[in-house]
């Protein structure tokens, strides 16, 4: 029962990230199609459950980072120009946005130089920041003492994402 509660809480976090308005005209969301969003939230929950964490905060942070990666992938899927291999990988976009200190100095330097010359990737970093900043974390429903029993805010999740990024690259 506790695993189901944790999985459902992780799916709730993923859903919150994937349905956050992106700041696009018309308030587009990263993943509006319900079937694709259901599949994506299941994939996020599965990945986070497999990778695990030592606390509820680590699980939340990891769920935010993995969900943000999915949001970047979805945003690129809707933009034919973004299929070019010259862009930063989605995980690096998320790490630059949420946990830049977790990157090696070499990776951070490469990313910074690329972002200076690539408005598309810069926009994706801004997208991740906007989505996480506006995120209201769902309150998990789980028995006391389980990893999902603790609740948090987007700021706590982003802070946790930064802390856990060094050990778990989404």
List the helices and strands and how they pair.
Layout: H1 2-18, H2 34-51, H3 56-77, H4 90-98, H5 105-117, H6 119-133, H7 154-165
Helix pairs in contact: 1-2, 1-3, 2-3, 3-4, 3-6, 3-7, 4-6, 5-6
Task: Please tell me about this protein's structure.
The chain is mainly α. The protein is 62% helix and 0% strand. It has helices spanning 2-18, 34-51, 56-77, 90-98, 105-117, 119-133, 154-165. The two termini are 26 Å apart. Residues 140-158 and 162-170 have low confidence and may be disordered.
Quaternary state reads single chain
Helix content: 55-70%
What is the structural class?
mainly alpha
Alpha plus pi helix count = 7
Percentage of residues in strands: under 5%
Strand count: 0
Order of helices and strands: HHHHHHH
What are the salient characteristics of this protein?
mainly alpha, disordered C terminus, 170 residues
Summarize the structure.
By secondary structure, this protein is mainly alpha-helical.
């Amino acid at each position: 029962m506790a695993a189901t509660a944790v999985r459902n809480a992780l799916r709730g976090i993923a859903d919150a990230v994937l349905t956050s308005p992106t700041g696009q005209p018309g308030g587009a969301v990263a993943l509006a199609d319900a079937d694709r969003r259901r599949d994506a939230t299941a994939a996020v929950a599965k990945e986070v459950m497999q990778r695990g964490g030592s606390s509820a905060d680590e699980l939340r942070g990891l769920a935010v980072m993995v969900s943000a990666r999915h949001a970047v992938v979805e945003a690129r899927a809707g933009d034919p120009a973004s299929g070019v291999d010259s862009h930063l990988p989605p995980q690096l976009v998320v790490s630059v946005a949420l946990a830049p200190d977790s990157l090696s100095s070499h990776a951070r330097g490469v990313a910074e130089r690329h972002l200076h010359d690539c408005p598309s990737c810069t926009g994706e970093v801004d997208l991740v920041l906007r989505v996480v900043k506006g995120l209201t974390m769902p309150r998990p429903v789980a028995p006391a003492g389980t990893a999902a029993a603790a609740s948090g805010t987007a700021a706590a999740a982003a802070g946790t994402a930064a802390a856990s990024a060094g050990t778990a690259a989404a």
